[in-house]
Target: NAD-binding protein
Amino acid sequence: MRPIPIRAIAAIGIFVTAVLALQSGVILSAEDAGVSRSILVDCYYALSLFVIGGIDIGTPQSGPAWAVALLWLSYFAAPILAVSTVLDLFLRMFTQHRWRLRRLRNHVIIDGDDELTRSYLRHLRQIDPKRQVVVLQGAGFSDTSREQLRRSFGALTWEGDLIDAFTFDQLRVKHAAKILLFSNYSLKNYETVKAMLDRRQDLAGKIVMHVDRLRFMRSMSSSRIAQSVTVFNGYQSAAESLVTTLAVPHVRQSGVPMGVVIAGFGRFGQSVLESLQNALPDEIAAVALIEHDAERRVMVTREQFSISTNFELKILQGDMTHPGVWEDLDGFWDRNSPNTLFVFATHREEDNLRSALWLRRHNPNAWVFARISRYSSFAQEVADDHDIIAMGLSQLIERSFPQSWIDCSMEGTAELIPPGS
Model:
């Protein structure tokens, strides 16, 4: 049972004292002599003492000395208590946030507020519901977003930039267990990491940095900063999760070489191909890539990693929604085989889901995956009804979070690589 606040006890005491004094026969200057008051009137008068600028009931004029003294005491105590309560409320509103920040230790700092941040927080709260978390948000984020983070995940929010020394100190970064840079601004993330490591080199093993652009991430992989911290790409993590948790068990169970059709060869599609050939180098017999500018994208892909020669590769230039593209696929691989994996990987989630349903109707034995942006109970229901797999990138990424990112008691031990090494 929670104790009664001291202010509540004081307010009750002042109210009872005033009523007692008024009932004892104290005459007020604003009322006519000889007029009797009921207990309800005296209670109303006593309550009005707490309201600044309230009803003018007059001052004590006559009556028992002790009652007059008590009433005068109530006259001063009631408004003082009311004012102090209001001031305390405002002070709490403005200082509680900073007070909690001053007590931060072994906490998690997340720079960025998007679906990746929320996926991480959902996963973290399942394992560690009490871990202190601070989410950095830009000036464009609304109060509603901040309130959602507070209510859903118990997270503090801060508007600022970790590059800034003031924010760095206020968030007690040196005492943090993990610093996760989940912003989609790739270059800024590198700059932020450099600024933090310039201040404290021992943070290197605690920092996880998201780089939105795969080509940029690979280009920066040899940099001193990239080699000092953990760097990842969301599309790559989602693709690895898809391959390791779904494709690999399916292929290993069947024991038969598989054909793969990737419709949409952007960042996610390219990552799926890379993950497949790394995880199943000998089990993939044929791969078909469908994209409206597939040849250019294949050239870009080959700049980043070598496409394996262990499987037959077919490049189909065109939109996956065009029936003619699928006619060109006939004769290359049996589309109706249970050992055929179709991955609809474009950023157009409606087209992915619709195309997956169309393919399922014409190829009831194939294995079909449709990418959506985030979890959708409607898409999940439709997928279950038609025996396809529809998963959001955020779901796949959430599955791929390493335990070391969640178990914040595991302090990093990496050190900053010196310049020029």
